């Protein structure tokens, strides 16, 4: 009976051998522009984290008082817009591919959860801006939170709490679920095309 | 197994488990690196072209200076317990003015008061008590606090009516006709002066500790007035203007919130005017989010991609290369074979 550490290593190698984790080839059907949007979403997430890290290093008020801070805040904002833009196209593409086929339901589900978690991650960023926009979003958003009792432990009017959620707790969740999503994609591979036999048979049935 | 029509979901599912066709060279590190570089470049270009919005926050000082009568009217509503904050309910107090529920589910009440705000004391009385060297004011506050509720109501009602005939001077005092307002008159004028000086902004943030990040009290006070509301209308941020998904100026905002905001526009069934609209919208979005995550298991929804064959566009090159589209339609036992498959399991 091997130790648990050995079993963990063997589990990892069995499910994600190096040639699957970092492949040097892909199925020939992976030849559409839609396949770019997953990588672009990751690229946007990397840009968000990089610009957010710089903003975090200098503190929450920096971007209001120095133009270089405002510059990095703008990069942070636009990379968030790009992140959602690319992710939505990626999700629509995967929907029309029925990409959950072949035991890939968890791949879809982790991608969908990433989208759902990204929404409060962005929301906490908007209410952490310390400007009029954050005042308005916080005062309006509080009613939604309070209506379900969430406001009792998630106070959108407390900028310190929102900032903590935004720069640590939610990013950990997003990065964690996106990492799991990517590992599952590597584990199961890119979903094959829907067999044309389906549509051929469908046409004949008309 | 074909049944003279479409493949079943189970058959489609099984067919997608393995692939034994041709492969092409691929560099995953290169793809992600190039994608990241491209996104960074786009973000920098957008930054150079458009920057990002940063409208200064409203303060109680700026509000009271530009709209002194509105400030005093709001302060009076905090004092007499008629403001939204004073009547809100959990998590701020035990009232019920903004308490929402879903049928028999009263989550807002069940979770209780976690951020207590006593509008009368926290927003009016306590700040007035911080004003030094004002014995007449402190005596007025004491008189008000110890007066019977009926007397307090008579004073505040009289002052409220008088505010309808008030004259104001921007950045200065609000003048009301003479009347029986008891101590309310000097209390309101002192509070206005405190607010205009910027002192009230600080007072509402103060706590038992030096550091503070909780803006619950000043934001609730500001929200009860018209300052935030007027700016939001000007910046097209109201709920009827698709609210929070918009951004100040002409910038794209939280566009991904469009479906949340959508429900606030729905007039059918009185949804948008329901006293429980926030709870209903959050519940709807919770259900839709769960459905979104569970698409692979939802009959009907999971079949949409094969009933509306967008996939033929996505994989058109593959279908063209494998020659499938040129073959005549066949059914039953004569149906074309699925692509040659091999296990991807190792």
Describe this structure in words.
The complex is a heterodimer of chains A (206) and B (346). Chain A is 73% helix and 1% strand. By secondary structure, chain A is an all-alpha fold. The longest helix of chain A has 30 residues. Chain A is globular. Chain B has 346 residues and is mainly α. Among the domains of chain B are: 170 residues, no CATH class; 59 residues, no CATH class. Chain B contains 18 helices and 3 strands. The N terminus and C terminus of chain B are likely disordered. The interface between A and B is large, with 108 and 121 residues.
Protein topology:
The complex is a heterodimer of chains A (206) and B (346).
Chain A: H1 4-15, H2 18-21, E1 25-27, H3 36-58, H4 62-65, H5 67-96, H6 105-126, H7 132-147, H8 159-188, H9 196-205
Helix pairs in contact in A: 3-5, 5-6, 6-8
Chain B: H1 9-15, E1 23-25, H2 28-50, H3 60-66, H4 68-79, H5 84-87, H6 107-111, H7 119-129, H8 135-146, H9 149-163, E2 167-168, E3 174-175, H10 184-196, H11 199-205, H12 216-224, H13 227-234, H14 258-263, H15 277-293, H16 304-307, H17 311-314, H18 316-322
Antiparallel strand pairs in B: 2-3
């Amino acid at each position: 009976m091997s130790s648990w550490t050995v079993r963990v290593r063997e589990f990892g190698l069995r499910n994600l051998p190096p040639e699957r984790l970092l492949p040097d080839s892909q199925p020939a059907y992976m030849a559409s522009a839609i396949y770019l949007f997953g990588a672009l979403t990751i690229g946007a997430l990397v840009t968000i984290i990089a610009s957010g890290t710089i903003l975090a290093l200098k503190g929450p008020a920096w971007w209001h008082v120095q133009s270089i801070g405002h510059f990095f805040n703008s990069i942070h904002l636009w990379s968030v817009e790009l992140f959602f833009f690319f992710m939505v196209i990626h999700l629509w593409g995967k929907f029309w591919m029925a990409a959950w086929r072949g035991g890939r339901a968890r791949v879809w589900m982790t991608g969908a959860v990433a989208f759902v978690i990204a929404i409060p991650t962005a929301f906490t960023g908007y209410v952490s801006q310390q400007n009029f926009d954050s005042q308005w979003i916080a005062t309006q958003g509080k009613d939604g939170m309070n209506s379900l009792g969430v406001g009792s432990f998630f106070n959108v009017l407390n900028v310190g709490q929102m900032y903590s959620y935004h720069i640590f707790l939610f990013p950990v969740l997003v990065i964690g679920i996106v990492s799991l999503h990517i590992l599952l994609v590597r584990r199961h591979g890119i979903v094959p095309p829907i067999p044309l036999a389906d549509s051929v048979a469908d046409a004949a049935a008309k | 197994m074909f049944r003279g029509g479409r493949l079943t979901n189970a058959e489609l599912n099984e067919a997608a488990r393995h692939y034994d066709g041709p492969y092409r060279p691929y560099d995953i590190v290169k793809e992600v690196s190039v994608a990241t570089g491209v996104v960074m470049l786009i973000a920098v270009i957008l930054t150079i072209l458009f920057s990002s919005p940063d409208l200064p926050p409203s303060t109680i000082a700026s509000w009271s200076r530009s709209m002194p009568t509105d400030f005093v009217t709001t302060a009076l509503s905090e004092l007499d317990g008629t403001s939204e904050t004073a009547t809100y309910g959990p998590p701020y107090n035990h009232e019920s003015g903004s308490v929402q529920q879903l049928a028999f589910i009263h989550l807002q009440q069940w979770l209780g008061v976690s951020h207590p705000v006593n509008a009368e004391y926290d927003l009016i009385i306590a700040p007035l008590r911080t004003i030094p060297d004002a014995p007449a004011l402190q005596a007025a506050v004491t008189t008000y606090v110890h007066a019977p509720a009926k007397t307090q109501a008579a004073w505040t009602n009289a002052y409220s009516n008088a505010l309808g005939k008030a004259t104001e001077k921007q950045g200065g005092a609000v003048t009301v006709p003479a009347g029986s307002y008891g101590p309310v008159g000097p209390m309101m004028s002192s509070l206005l002066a405190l607010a205009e000086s910027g002192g009230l902004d600080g007072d509402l943030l103060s706590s038992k500790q030096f550091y503070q990040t909780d803006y619950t009290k000043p934001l609730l006070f500001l929200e009860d007035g018209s300052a935030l509301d007027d700016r939001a209308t000007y910046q097209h941020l109201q709920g009827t203007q698709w609210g929070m998904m918009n951004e100040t100026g002409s910038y794209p905002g939280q566009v991904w919130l469009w479906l949340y905001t959508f429900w606030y526009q729905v007039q059918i069934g009185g949804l948008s005017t329901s006293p429980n609209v926030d709870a209903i919208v959050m519940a709807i979005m919770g259900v839709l989010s769960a459905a979104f995550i569970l698409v692979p298991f939802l009959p009907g929804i999971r079949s949409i991609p094969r009933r509306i064959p967008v996939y033929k566009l996505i994989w058109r090159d593959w279908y063209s290369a494998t020659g499938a589209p040129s073959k005549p339609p066949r059914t039953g036992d004569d149906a074309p074979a699925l692509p040659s498959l091999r296990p991807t399991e190792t």
